[in-house]
Write the C-alpha cells for this entry.
Amino acid sequence: MNVPDFSDRRFVALASDYDGTLAKDGKVSASTLDALNRFKARDGKIILVTGRVLPELEEVFPDVGICDLVVAENGALLFWPKSGEVKLLAPPPPPAFAEKLAELGADPLSVGHCIVATRTPHETAVLKTIEEMHLDLTIIFNKGAVMVLPSGVSKASGLEAALETLGLKAEETVAVGDAENDLAMLKMCGLGVAVANALDTVKAEADWVTPAARGDGVAQALDAVMAAEARL
C-alpha cells in the first residue's frame, strides 16, 4: 500500500463522508466499525460529515453514537448523538420553497432543517424557483443529488464549526470522501483522502487514494495514521 509520508504529524480526528465513503449501500460494515473503535481507543475523535437529514441518518446508521459529532445536511447543522442536541448553522428556507418544488414535480424531495434536496434533472426547476422567490440559496451537486442550501454553507463550513466546537485543528484532521461536495473538506484538512471508488476529480485533488473502496478504504486510512503515530 503506497502511503504518503506523514510520520512527522499526528492526526487526532477523522472527518468522514457517509454514503459511498464510510457506508456501502447505506450500511457501515462491522470491519469498518472495528477500525473506528480502534481509532477511538487511541483518543481519536470521529466527525461524520454527511448530506443526509438526521431522521434518515439515524435510520440507516444505528451506530451513529460512535461519532463524537455529526455535521448533517451538507454543513447546515451539528448533531451530538449522545445528547440528541441539534445546532443549526444556517437559516432554514421558507416552507413555500419546498412546496413550490413539489408543485413543479420535483420527486424525490427531501426537506430537513435547512436543506431541501432532490435529484437531477430537477435542478432547472430549483434554479427557476430560487430566482422567482429571490432567495439566497445555492445548489450543491453530489453525483445525482441536487442539494439546496443557504449560500456559503458547505461540508467545509460545517466541519470548521465542528472542529471549533471540539477544540480541534484542521491540520490535525484526516478527511475522507468520494464525491464533489467532499472536495473543499478534503482540501482544508491536514490529510485529504479519497477512497478507491471516488470520482476521478476527487482522486486528482486528494493527498492519497486508498487501494480499497468505501468503508474498507476508511479503515486503511485510519490504520495508516495509527501505524505512523506508533512510530513517533
